[in-house]
Design brief:
With 59 residues, the protein is mainly alpha-helical. The chain has helices at 2-5, 15-28, 34-38, 49-57.
Length: 59
Amino acid sequence: MLWIDEDAILCGYCWPGMLIAAADLLARKPDPSDDDIDGIRNLCRCGCYLRVCTAREDD
């Protein structure tokens, strides 16, 4: 819901990969550190990646 609250809706190119990467990280590490989260790299073509980062920091 934080992604929606932060208007981090993406063009659709990278969103599936980001969601899968986030789900995988949370499955492996339920309380990830900022460094763990920063270690996830996904290609974002639309420029909304900073909103995604803001959304994750709001948690």
